[in-house]
Each structure stands twice: as structure tokens, then as C-alpha cells.
Amino acid sequence: MSCLNNVTCERRTYTEKPHGHIHAFAQLVVPISGTLSVMIGEQSLADCCQNVIYIPPSSYHSFHSQGRNRFFVFDIPTFFLPKNKTLLADCLRMDGRWQAVRALLFDEVGESTASNPRLSDLCCYIMRLLEDKARHSASLEYMHSNYCRQITVQELAALEHYNPSYYCTWFLKHYGVSPLNYIRNLRLENAKDLLVNTDCTLMQIAQQIGYQHQSTLTRLFLAETGMAPAEFRRKNKSSG
């Protein structure tokens, strides 16, 4: 695998025939026009017209596209990557921040490969965007807003443009628990708050956090706190 000493960026066009390879540096693909199908390991990203694609170093990947297309492609040395966080393959919605990045690239990158201090500075900003995405993902926000209803891994994976299997790996890597356990923890913390700060019945609390049966709430508390919900309420209300 070849190494890279400087940030470079160029405009590239892809053919209908998939081209797969692996290299020691990271890549970032920013759309200009057309659609692109990307395979990163076992993860498939199809027709990512309005999405920015991040490819980690040493990850086998392939590209192909049907029809006319054009993309900005960053080649990023590993020393530009965060030292204390591993950024996994990612697909990012083309929001206002990425549109601003693309506008700068139109000024900096012509028809030949570009490499200069301004691109390096822009790359540092891009790394912060990628880290911010890991901290504030669409699926995480969705969990916090909808933990009280039944949520499937398929729904969450679709929000991040991942297949369910890769999404679970990605989520565990970033947040230390599986998506379903994260939802379970959200329900537990909200149930604790309702037990201590309201007079709702146990059945009402169970329903408010997304359970149909009071027994499910009881099992959750016994497993996580070692006490039943009623006992948790008595101890914490009396000590408050």
C-alpha cells in the first residue's frame, strides 16, 4: 500500500466498471454531479448523489457510476486523522457546512491535482466535521426523541445510510453499547425521573417509556438497579 505525505485533492470521474483497491491513507469524496455507488468492505452505499463519503485508511473499497459524473476526492495522510478516535467509514448528508466545503474546492481545485496549505487547513476543518458527526449522529438524535416507541435497527441504520449489520458495529464503536441497549438505558433513566418526580402509576410510567406491560418495567429495574420500581421510588423520594 502506498503512503501519502501531503493532503491532495482532485476532480475525478468514475466508470460503470467497479474499480476496487486499498491504500494506507484516508479518502473523502465530495459530489459535484452524478451518482456514485461505493462498496467499503461489506458496506454498500448506492447512488450517493447528495452525500459525502469518508473512507478510512487500509479499507478495501470500490467505486462505480452510471452516467456522467464528477467528484472532488481528497487523499488524506493518516497524521491528519484524530489521534484519540477511530473514524469509521461514513456517509454524510450534504448540508450547509459541506456545501461550503464544496464551494471552497471549486476555487482551489482545477483540472489537475491540488496540494497546498489552504487545502491542509480545510482538511483539518473536515476532520472536525467528521468527529462532530460521530458525536451527534442522526440516529442518536432520533433515539432521544422516539425512545418511547418501538424502534428497529433497520430504521436507525437507514438514518445513517448503513446496512443494519455495519450500523451496529459503527454504533458500538462510537458509543460503547449496542443501539438497542442504548434505547434500553434511555428508558431506564427516564423511568427513574418519572418515579422520583411524579405520582404516575407504574403502569403509566411503563407506557410512557415505551413498554406495554408493567412487568417489563419491573424486569428492567431488577436487572439494572437490583430493586423493583416501587422500592426505587420509596428510597429516592424519601432521600430527596
Please characterize this protein's 3D structure.
With 240 residues, this protein is α+β, with helices and mostly antiparallel strands. It folds into two domains: 8-135, Regulatory protein AraC (Jelly Rolls, Sandwich); 137-240, Arc Repressor Mutant, subunit A (Orthogonal Bundle), CATH 1.10.10.60. The protein is built from nine helices and nine strands. It has helices at 96-108, 117-135, 138-146, 153-159, 164-175, 179-197, 202-208, 214-225, 229-239, and strands at 8-12, 19-21, 26-33, 37-40, 43-45, 51-55, 61-64, 70-76, 90-93. It has a five-stranded antiparallel β-sheet, covered by helices on one side. The chain has a four-stranded antiparallel β-sheet with strand order 2-7-4-5, with no helix packed on it. α3 (138-146) packs across α4. The longest helix is centred in the middle third of the chain and has 19 residues, at 117-135. It is elongated. The chain starts with 7 loop residues before the first strand and ends with a helix. The mean pLDDT is 88.
What is the structure about, briefly put?
The chain has 240 residues and is α+β, with helices and mostly antiparallel strands. Helices cover 45% and strands 18% of the residues. It has helices spanning 96-108, 117-135, 138-146, 153-159, 164-175, 179-197, 202-208, 214-225, 229-239, and strands spanning 8-12, 19-21, 26-33, 37-40, 43-45, 51-55, 61-64, 70-76, 90-93.
Keywords:
2 domains, 9 helices, alpha+beta, 45% helix, transcription regulation, 18% strand, single chain, 4-stranded antiparallel beta sheet, Jelly Rolls, Arc Repressor Mutant, subunit A, 240 residues
